[in-house]
Amino acid sequence: MKVNKAVALDHGLNEEEFSKICELLKRTPNITELAIFSAMWNEHCSYKSSRKHLKKLHTKGKQVIQGPGENAGIIDIGDDEAIVFKIESHNHPSFIEPYQGAATGVGGIMRDVFTMGARPIANLNSIHFGSPQHKKTRNLLRGVVKGIGGYGNCIGVPTIAGQTSFDESYNGNILVNAMTLGLVNKNKIFYSKAAGINKPVIYVGSKTGRDGIHGASMASATFDDKVEEKKPTVQVGDPFTEKLLLEACLELMVDKSIIAIQDMGAAGLTSSSIEMASKGKLGIELDLNKVPCREEKMSPYEIMLSESQERMLIVLEKGKENHAKKIFDKWNLDFAVIGKTTNSKKIELIFDNNKVAEIPIDILVENAPIYDRKWKKTKLPQKLKFNKDELKSLNLSDCLKKILSNPNISEKSWIWDQYDHTVMGDTIQKPGGDAGVVRVHGTTKAVAASVDSSANYCYSHPLTGGKQVVCESWRNLISVGAKPISITNCLNFGNPEKEKNMGEFVECVEGITEASKYLEFPVVSGNVSFYNETKDKSIKPTPTIGGVGLINNYKNMITMDFKKSGNLVYVIGKTEGHLDQSVFAKDVLNEKKGPPPSINLFNEKNIGETILNLIENKLIFSCHDISLGGILTAVSKMCIKGKKGLKINSLKTLINKFEYFFGEDQGRYIIEISKENSQKVNEILNNNSVHFDDLGAIEGKSLTFNDDINLPIEELSNTHTYWLQRYMNN
Amino acid sequence: MKSSVIIFPGSNCDRDMDVALKKFGFKNQMVWHNDNNIPKSDLIVLPGGFSYGDYLRCGSIASKSKIIKPVIEFANSGGLVLGICNGFQILCETGLLPGVLQQNKYLNFICRNVYVKLKNKENKYFKNIKKNILELHIAHNEGNFFCNDDELKTLEDNNQIAVTYCNEKGIEDEKHNPNGAIKNIAGIFNKNKNVLGMMPHPERMIDKYLSGEDGSMFFENLLGNLK
What we know:
Chain A contains 27 helices and 28 strands.
């Protein structure tokens, strides 16, 4: 096939990019070479629109061993142990084919983690669907959940936490973000940087088929009416093979046979081989006839672009081939020496004894286009004035029940019951809490992890929203008694070629950076997913933050269920009654305008650290951060989980009770303490200048407040628990 | 007491079982599916997971693997063989236990705590356990036990039903049957009660920070009975 401009456009490159390629090569590329450029220069692999802004992220910290730029980030948790973690999107494929899209999303992120020598110990996911009324939502949700479960359950890694939301902006573009944490000895980490010349390049895992060709370019474009035609670009997962690959790789990693290792993810063999060579400033030569293929007569073009799953590329020490082969034979996996490292600084591909591609690697990597796209700032919306008379006519109990059964608030056990969350025998906080917690096997330590996003806040004001998500993640970790260490981010946005969408991206990143710097909560890994747009309608900006924290002694972990009758319940942090953008405003008042609650990073940090101090002093029985739905929603969940009632005191505040109970002011927590310790607790809070309200006491089996609320816990529980189950059974 | 846990490609509860057995005093060793022999053992465990990806039918490929021959010989000579979850499915496929495990009635994977009733304590596994109802954990997609009427009658006549799903008070009804298993069956014995297959995972309930502690009782008791 002759390569010209039209062919280049078909491959997702624009005219300018195609001329640049011809100029750099000093000739027109052949079709295989063009394919390699299209794979390396698409948005998904090159970060060409985001790179400029991602550089601003705060990525350094005392505990950071590896920041962004590798397969995953790594943090030190002491005693030579480290946690490898990352979050990644698989949005486009999951919309086209929900089961396989979600399954391979989970498979891909786990490979990123075990590539580095870590055994995966926990999975999380953040999934976002269109309106529950939309005709596709139910099937997409069912398929995604089954796909995540089907893959993670089979591998035997517990899925310990997650987040699910519904919003009509996802009607045409659902989001599936998968996160994995792995445990590694900090002296036995494996990287993707090749070193040394004439070292054998090894292909292991599944055979290469024609699936997933152009997957990465598909993820770099918007959808239109012909989305169904893209089905063949979705990869098909085989968790069984991945389990074998995991065990085989970890077995080979016991000694020092491996120089570099990289999984074949987006853009398959192309990006893995080029990345390894590029990082090592080497060349690489591959004989494509040696690549194990599943189908007959695959062309170099197809072999290089295939995104068949469960494959790895390894640069091995010379002479270790037999040793390595034995291990992969034991696990019944393909093993082939397909090439070698060279000093040419080029990628050279051989097929049927002909050289079918020859490209200098720096052209592909360092000369990849970087765009400084135009973007527009979002103004902070005017604060709304709520009609006090309208509020007075409302019934507090009815409002609470409406909020508790809201699709975005209601319990999601229909989902997590389908995920194996207890395999590996170390899950000490299951899904449904503020964060999932797994023990570091055989030690007293435990790792907490949470995934969060707040698309409504980000849509209303991206800068505040970006900050808020980081703070929310920080709070969720603190609520279980973990010291927050670091985050990974999955930045889901619309079309970067549109100023509004690009502006949302830039300002969310700014917000994330500001908060993570202030809280010393650095970003160590992540990915960007642009073009979440169908027929010109883009999603709300949805940066997802995966936070990781450490509990030194797992016996001190905190859960949110109310523990003991007679104990006191405090609201920590000041309640100003911010209703704009709240669930109450949207769901009860049908009011979607206004600014999100503001973030005060000083308070956030001070309050968080004070809560940790109280937990370390064993003064807290249960804790839960106050987020969507405000105070009343938070305490209701604590009542339901603990099967205990709460008697709320009369309010000593000047603001309206609806504002007090449903406001979504930030930086707040609910804590349970004993009466005997109250003086001690008050002292610590006062010494740290932390505002608190004595909300009430745990009592009986009902949630009560003056004459306004008298709701039996069972009723609260029924309201909160069954929305999703009923929805899915319809 | 010595135990052996068999690892098939795709097993994923092998380590959890190893941890549990060792915690309660077994000298455990791991045995690879492709081996011909099993080291001298007082107990052989087929762990949970997805042996051979559960392709073809859960447990069916594993039931033809090399190591199964000595497992069957061991069982036939009266040795204790315990199959948990995928292990139970394998035992049914080998013919050591009757019946099959079909996909769950509501077609979803289920991971949660359940109550089970011990139906027969006259055996090495449950003898001396004081409680009649245990809280254990299930995590499976194919736990819907089924057998034909004749097989069911034989199971009942020989007291081969080991555990059934129930509520905390021991009521075995449809509501507390998570997967549609016939007669709420969660686990069964062979005729001689030396082979036990069950869906619940006692190895996931071995300390109070996990889902619960009733699994501890199972292992402690088993070790005591073997001494």
